[in-house]
Amino acid sequence: MTNKTILVTGGAGYIGSHTCVELLNAGFTIVVVDNLSNSKIEALKRVERITEKTVVFYQADIRDKDALASVFNQHHFDAVIHFAGLKAVGESCQQPLAYYDNNVHGTLVLLQVMEQFNVTDLVFSSSATVYGDPHTVPIKENFPLSATNPYGKTKLHIEEILRDLSKADSFGAKKRPWNIAILRYFNPVGAHHSGLIGEDPNGVPNNLMPYIAQVAVGKLSQLSIFGNDYPTKDGTGVRDYIHVVDLAKGHLKALEALFSCHDDSRSCKAYNLGTGKGYSVLDMVNAFSRVTGLAIKYQFVDRREGDIAECYADPSLSADELSWQTDKNLDDMMRDTWSWQSNNPAGYA
Ligand code: NAD
Ligand code: WQD
Questions:
Q1: CB neighbour list of residue 97: distance below 8 Å, 6 or more residues apart
Q2: Confidence (pTM)
Q3: What are the residue ranges spanned by the domains of the chain?
Q4: Mean pLDDT of the region 175-180
């Protein structure tokens, strides 16, 4: 597994930075390309502090073909892990063109440059959002796919592009067919146990866990819980929260699977990365208070448009084919979120 060099797009971001730590600890050389549109260079400095290893960094936009080609000219990559993208659902409804351009066009440019340099091993960050509103839970990879907002549609379009690329290999005589792992993340939360890296959202957080953490640290006055009339155990929405370090390790397992694949079985496959357990919003609030000793003030408000009642994974395919499983529990997620938030009340600023 060592002596391999991985290009990590979006490596300065929340999930990317945690994955960089795991890659460096496993002995990979990593090169990060990030335009820092939603992250800070400080995150990569902290990655270097945690691992005592070096990150090669290029500040560049993946839509800039010349800049990307110049990076590929300077390094031989064994694989690419592609995190770079915009991810705010609400913003994507207001600015769909920005999302299609950044996520879909950006991925197309990356794939073109990869093809040009004959780098055809790819791990792609997809999302459970591609399952839309599932008929049943737990969700398996072969469930119908749909998307209800532009962000989700960019993930679905990119997945389709990747499947088409892989199918096209059966017609051509390319030296090395594409070998692609699409990872569908459920709800990433938590932070590295060092408290040095974590999620640093711009402005008021959209997601539950950073919102709870900012109420706890006194930056926000109270949590609004979006709906208490869902058909769930306590009426609040149920999700599959996964510790970001478990998620990061899933990328190493996916790389291992790609690298151990025989030439005639290179393909494009999707895997759920979730715990298989569903927790409600109230479960999360109560667990945070239990672990940290801090009360979280909340009020119930109307449902948020586009939200679904329940979403959790069947992670058995990842267990069987990637030998991946989660190690961390809800208490780890709460403890590490609070360690990051309380040590860095202003994030990386
Ligand atoms: P993030 O915003 O923290 O990280 C994304 C990184 O990509 C940022 O550092 C940003 O500066 C960079 N970036 C964005 N557009 C770029 C471009 N055009 N060129 C170069 N760099 C660019 O987000 P994250 O939470 O770490 O998510 C990583 C990936 O995982 C994203 O693709 C996201 O859609 C996906 N994902 C995230 C979640 C989640 O809840 N966090 C869930 C499912 C899927
Ligand atoms: C979780 C639960 C809310 C905030 C989103 C994206 C998805 C993926 C992960 C990228 C829900 C409730 C939340 C708040 C609340 N991202 N909530 N008050 O909506 O499951 O998924 O992030 O791919 O695509 O849609 O995550 O953290 O926003 O919400 O009551 O202030 O918390 O209603 O039940 P979600 P979330």
A1: none
A2: 0.98
A3: 5-343
A4: 90
